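in:
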């Protein structure tokens, strides 16, 4: 069996920092949005995909430099990013093969994984959706299917850990089972239900609960 982890918002609390940076920059353009609203609609998506949707939502154009402004502000915040509580202890208990499948670039992944002492726990099995396979980001299943192919595991024997609606959709589309994670700083009212609507089979709030939940899903599948 293979366990495929998203990274931002699942193992480290960076999704909240990206949302915070985005909301702050949007406010400078008099486009008001709460972190909860941004996270519920756009968590897990790349900013190149988010901008057209925001323009449609606010019915106005957005300055061409806004993506760079968000990235610059987020990078300052992420310099202090930490692994989520229980991440290392959870990985100590996990006996199955594992990998990272993210929409972030491989460069950003390595930087932030080294900052949080997670790099050596996954390398070289760290995959950026925009750099592998068809290069299609989530919600396309590309990165999950690529990882399963490289590691020679049938998708039905894969369990995805995801915190976002679009990432959950990608895992389901790949023919994998998905556990939704709702313990990051960007979680919002209805987060768990949102992930279940996208196809997650269950949700957990604490990383410490993942090993037992994975085992239960595996045993249920084996039966």
């Amino acid at each position: 069996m293979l366990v495929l982890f998203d990274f931002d918002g699942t193992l480290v609390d960076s999704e909240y920092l990206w949302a915070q940076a985005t909301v702050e920059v949007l406010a400078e353009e008099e486009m008001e949005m709460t972190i909860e609203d941004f996270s519920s609609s756009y968590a897990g998506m790349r900013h190149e995909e988010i901008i057209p949707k925001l323009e449609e939502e606010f019915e106005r154009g957005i300055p061409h430099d806004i993506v760079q402004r968000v990235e610059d502000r987020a990078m300052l915040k992420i310099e202090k990013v930490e692994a989520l509580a229980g991440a290392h202890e959870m990985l100590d208990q996990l006996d199955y093969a594992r990998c990272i499948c993210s929409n972030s670039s491989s460069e950003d992944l390595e930087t932030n994984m080294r900052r949080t002492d997670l790099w050596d726990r996954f390398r070289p099995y760290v995959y950026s959706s925009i750099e592998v396979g068809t290069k299609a980001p989530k919600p396309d299943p590309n990165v999950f299917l690529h990882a399963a192919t490289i590691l020679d595991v049938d998708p039905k024997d894969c369990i995805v850990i995801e915190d976002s609606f679009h990432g959950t959709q990608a895992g389901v589309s790949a023919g994998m089972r998905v556990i939704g994670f709702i313990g990051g700083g960007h979680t919002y009212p209805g987060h768990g239900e949102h992930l279940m609507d996208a196809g997650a089979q269950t949700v957990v709030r604490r990383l410490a609960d993942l090993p037992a939940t994975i085992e239960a899903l595996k045993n249920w599948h084996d039966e």
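note: The mean pLDDT is 91.
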